[in-house]
Design a protein that fits this description.
The structure is a single chain. With 136 residues, this protein is an all-alpha fold. It folds into two domains: 44 residues; 77 residues, Cytochrome c-like domain (Cytochrome Bc1 Complex, Chain D, domain 2, Orthogonal Bundle), CATH 1.10.760.10. Helix content is 60%, strand content 0%. It contains seven helices and no strands.
Length: 136
């Protein structure tokens, strides 16, 4: 661990020669989350979360954020795979279903994004595609 920190700090010290104290403080503050306890195999800084959300399939999003209600049909949620429960919803068109996924359905347990705080609109659309494809 000590060796690792030395490796990180050395290029920083070399760089620091040409910087004002204020610039150096800025850089140190910026790299701090990565340099502090970032060893191989650890989830470091914010890098991991970005990579994760970029590579998520609709099924991944569904499993993480939607399945709790939509696998068994909790609280009136249409269960994935239940063609009867979905037929009427699918007939509204995909845009309406995306809108429900992203903005929620007012007055029901379907809250915006299904409550997924780190989902993008595209993540939600992919999850809706997965749910609909599995329920036709
Ligand atoms: C806390 C429970 C809950 C979670 C979590 C949840 N839903 Fe729902 N969802 C519901 C309920 C309840 C309904 C039925 C709402 C209604 O009465 O139309 C619903 C309905 C829907 C519909 C159909 C809406 C329509 O217009 O017919 C879609 C699409 C949907 N959910 C997508 C998602 C997606 C995508 C996620 C995950 C990102 C998710 N839901 C997570 C409870 C949930």
């Amino acid at each position: 661990m000590r060796m690792f920190l030395v490796l990180i700090m050395t290029p920083l010290a070399a760089l620091a020669l040409d910087l004002t104290d204020r610039q150096r403080a800025d850089i140190e503050a910026r790299i701090q989350p990565f340099s502090s306890v970032c060893v191989q195999g650890d989830a470091c800084g914010g890098g991991e979360a970005v990579a994760e959300s970029a590579g998520r399939s609709g099924e991944d999003v569904y499993n993480n954020a939607c399945m709790a209600c939509h696998s068994a049909g909790i609280a009136g949620a249409p269960a994935v795979g239940d063609q009867l429960a979905w037929a009427g919803r699918i007939s509204k068109g995909m845009d309406a279903l995306y809108d429900s996924g992203i903005n929620g359905v007012a007055g029901t347990g379907m809250i915006a994004m299904g409550g997924c705080v780190d989902c993008s609109d595209d993540d939600i659309r992919a999850a809706v595609d997965f749910m609909v494809d599995s329920s036709r």
